[in-house]
Specification:
about 500 residues; alpha/beta; Rossmann fold; Luciferase, domain 3; GMP Synthetase, Chain A, domain 3; 3 domains; nine-stranded mixed beta sheet; six-stranded antiparallel beta sheet; about 30% helix
Length: about 500
């Protein structure tokens, strides 16, 4: 039987290995575990001196960097709620989150100083302190009265204000809580210690990149941060730091594959052992090419800020292309019709996941109630199970197109478009049609170096007609220089779709 290294939290490990490398920032600055822990402890002491108590919320408007990681570690050992804020939001949007979360502390980077000051003023928070001023003079030893913190993630949502996925802070020691979270990496066959190095490629205001980076720290793995994603820079960092684990989204994987083959071959990525991806459908052809390049190191999972989920390893996926896997240990998945009845294999319905930890949408009991069926919840995704219990996603219910009474799933059309070498990104959605109710509309971002033209439009439409049934093919196709995606790859399709529906009722 293989001996699995024992798990120890970051705070325990640092006592024995203070000089161990813990963090590398995007500018190359390296932090030892001891130096990072000292800053984390100082922050706890500094915020407590300013009145923060167990259960309070700490909001952060920070890029990927040491201040974000130190603040995260502080929150998670002081019994506070971690409230990450998307750095692209406006001052009024930030102010709403500050007020709604009841944040008692707000940590922001200088590059967002103008937005942060306006938001804090609107939310009624007191004046700010520089990060270094907050730490200055505070002791570097581990604080007493430690209690595990908790995440309070604001979901991006599809309409209206974002809602917080709120959970109570557990009555646990932080080291105990970290041990309970360890399976979040172990399920991807990752073990503590060893020669692992983790690369964070996306902003850590998103829960997935934040979690994988945070758990890696507790596994004793050095964490390398990217401030923004660039495909060739990612390959360069993988080679330089001998990265073994990383988390990416399909948009990033697609951009890696768009690099010229000579560029991709220039970098040694043989150190990769565990590449996790999620957040959006991954086209089958893209994933096949990725596995051919990197080998069977790709793990896909399906879940949400609210909980999860399913998992599939590369070998399983190659046997069932397109699946997002089966439930991981302790999880569960069901596909239900509109009356809440289980559907047979192959039938498309609403995907429900088993609650693994109680949560509520803060301030929105109706949304909490509508997302539940007993101990199961949904985020509105549509999909189907095969006879072996593997889940396949169709699309989000709100994105489904009903054309002539037939359900059309945009993700399938987007995947077809993304398989064309002249397409850098694609979005498909329904627009009003007098004849069909809705018709299929595509918006394409050409690949780097490709010019938008009528000839390109005709090539792409012909490409779709050769791959898709006629009713699925776009009736029109427009070009854009950049689709409205956030830095984690999430597509804000409503920004493209909603203008077509002004003054009309869209039924889904």
């Amino acid at each position: 039987m293989t001996n699995v290294p024992a798990f120890e939290s970051f705070w325990v490990r640092v006592e024995a290995e203070p000089e161990r490398l813990a963090l590398v920032e995007s500018d190359g600055r390296a932090w030892s575990a001891g130096a990072l822990a000292a800053r984390c402890h100082q922050l706890v002491h500094g915020l407590r001196a300013r009145g923060l108590r167990h259960g309070d919320a700490v909001a952060v408007l920070l890029p990927n960097g040491e201040p974000l990681v130190a603040t995260l570690l502080a929150v998670m050992q002081a019994g506070w709620h971690w409230v990450p804020i998307n750095t692209s939001l406006t001052a009024s949007e930030v102010a709403w989150i500050l007020a709604d979360s009841g944040a008692r502390a707000f940590v922001a980077d200088e590059r967002y100083a103008e937005v942060a000051a306006a938001a804090a003023g609107e939310a009624g928070l007191p004046g700010s302190l520089r990060f270094e001023e907050l730490l200055a003079g505070q002791p570097t030893h581990r604080p007493g009265d430690r209690l595990a913190g908790q995440f309070m993630q604001y979901t991006s949502g599809t309409t209206g204000r974002p809602k917080a996925v709120q959970r109570a802070t557990p009555a646990l020691d932080p080291d105990q809580m970290a041990a309970l979270l360890a399976p979040n990496l172990a399920r991807y066959d990752i073990t503590p210690g060893g020669e692992h190095v983790h690369l964070v490629t996306s902003p850590m205001y998103h829960l997935a990149p934040l979690s994988f980076g945070y758990f890696s720290l507790h596994f004793g793995h050095p964490v390398v941060l990217m401030d923004h994603f660039d495909p060739e820079s990612a390959l360069r960092l993988i080679e330089r730091h001998r990265v073994t684990t990383t988390h990416m989204v399909p948009t990033q994987l697609h951009r890696l594959m768009l690099l010229p083959e000579a560029t991709r071959r220039r970098y040694d990525v043989s150190s990769l052992r565990h590449v996790m991806h999620a957040a959006a459908p991954c086209p089958i052809e893209l994933k096949r090419r990725l596995i051919e390049w990197w080998g069977p190191v790709v793990y896909e999972y399906y879940g949400a800020s609210e909980g999860g989920g399913t998992l599939v390893r590369a070998a399983e996926w190659l046997e069932k292309p397109g699946t997002v896997g089966r439930p991981w240990p302790g999880a569960g998945v069901r596909v239900l019709d509109d009356e809440g009845k289980d559907l047979p294999p192959g039938a498309v319905g609403t995907v429900y996941l088993k609650l693994m930890m109680e949560f509520a949408y803060k301030g929105d009991p109706e949304k909490t109630r509508a997302s539940r069926r007993g101990e199961w919840f949904t985020v509105g995704d549509m999909g189907w199970l095969d006879a072996d219990g593997y889940l396949f996603l169709s699309d989000r219910k709100i994105d489904m197109i009903i054309s002539g009474g037939v359900n059309v799933y945009p993700a399938e059309i987007e995947a077809a478009l993304l398989a064309h070498p002249e397409v850098g990104d694609a979005a498909v959605f329904g627009i009003p049609s007098e004849e069909w109710g809705e018709e299929v509309k595509a918006v394409v971002e050409p690949a780097p170096g490709v010019l938008a033209s009528d000839a390109l439009r005709e090539r792409l439409l012909a490409h779709c007609r050769a791959r898709l049934a006629g009713y699925k093919c776009p009736r029109s196709l427009d070009f854009t220089s950049a689709l409205p995606r956030d830095a984690n790859g999430k597509l804000y399709k409503r920004k493209l779709r909603d203008p077509y529906w002004v003054g009309r009722e869209r039924k889904v």
